[in-house]
Amino acid sequence: MVSTAAGKPQAGVDLLRIVRINEEIKAVVGVAFKINIMALNAIFLAKRAGTAALGFGVLSNELRVFSQDLRTCMGALTELIHRCVNEVSVVLQDIRHTRLLRDAVLMSSMPGLAVVVHRREAANVEHQERLAGLRRQLQRALEDAFQLVELGGVLAKSAKIEAAYGQGFAASLAQVSGEFDGVVEEIRNSLQALQRSDFFKSN
Amino acid sequence: MKKTNTIFQEGDHKWIAIVRDPERPGHLVDTNEYLVLHGGKGMLLDPGGAEVFPAVFSALSGEFDPSALSAVFASHQDPDICSSLALWLEFNPGMRCYVSWLWASFIPHFGGTAETFVSMPDEGMDIALDGLMLQALPAHYLHSSGNFHLYDRRAKILFSGDVGAALLPAGHDALFVDNFDTHIRYAEGFHKRWMGSNEAKRRWCERVAQMDIDLLCPQHGAIYQGADVQRFINWFDELQVGILGA
Predict the structure, then answer these.
(1) Which CDD domains match (chain B) (predicted)?
(2) What is the pTM of this model?
(3) What residue of B is the nearest CA neighbor of A99?
(4) Looking at the domain covering B3-238, what would its CATH class be?
(5) Do the bridges between strand B117-120 and strand B125-129 make them parallel or antiparallel, or are there none, so unpaired?
(6) Longest Cα pair distance anywhere in chain B, in angstroms?
(7) In this predicted model, what pLDDT tens digit does every residue of B131-140 receive, in sequence order?
(8) Which residues of chain B are modeled with pLDDT < 50?
């Protein structure tokens, strides 16, 4: 059994970490949903501003596409997280079963029982490999999400610049694009923190 | 490691009690497991909890090849009865588990597949073990609402699950009840609290009083033998159960 320095089984620690990641992702998904509404507002505002906010109008459409992509991306992340939680739970159950089986076979005088422990260990390896695969997939998905959010940040900053040319609508356009930028920044920070999680440092 | 004691033998027909683990952590209730052997086939009665599996398994494997266990009998659904099920199935995935229909979809949370479970109807059923007919007797509400005991007519042994159970203090580790009056004090509180129905208790007492029983084997505590069997039935018949002062 792989143990951490504190003596806790690695799978137990992993489960705590993945649960925290899951909570963080849930928060990000909530914020991402807010972005969708904000993008719609930006489109309406740009329409109302008409020729005074042509550049902002183009960007607000891009922000709407971005918000939809972000939603798809968060959906994929949520699914991956659920699969990771499930797999870590399986590994945790494996640890207990293997410990009890090993003890039983060690205490028994009957020959040939080791084959059952070997079979269990082979299944454990399979589960651990599956978890390692999911861990890599999740890491890649977080990187992709981060790239997407970087793009969102660029769009939000450009919208802020375009808002300045909005004449009579400049103040409200600046407010919308500023809020957008703030939310994107929030998601960006969350994703960055998630990428640094110790969950990705385990094997 | 737990001890094994052969409590009945006639040719290849054998009952083995697996009892008393000196290394058992004190926070786990002590349990008895019983192995019925006939014609090279084995059935384990109330196989025990996951945490005591190594102790039960190692004791059993000293007497019998665990991969040849054809079935387990679960008197009811409690974790000390059968939470080790998944581990036993590792040794023989084809093993069957006899259990009340009431728990047939609950116990699978401990392990097993749809093929593992044989649902027993409320009225009980006969269970064949390589030609030996064992009888699953209804003992509902004693204490579980879907509860069975197992009777071996040929060996005159009744496995009585939690009925007859006693929570013995340290040092009281005799296999058989040696002094009924002393012993029953450790059974009284258990029966008053764990058994939920006086009516069910009365019916059970009437039924088993008619049966030919040499050994009454509970899942906790010592085994009743000879005259102590009827003595226990009479005592239980008179005990008021299912009453809590709180």
Answers:
(1) flavodiiron_proteins_MBL-fold (cd07709)
(2) 0.80
(3) B54
(4) alpha beta
(5) unpaired
(6) 52
(7) 999 999 999 9
(8) none
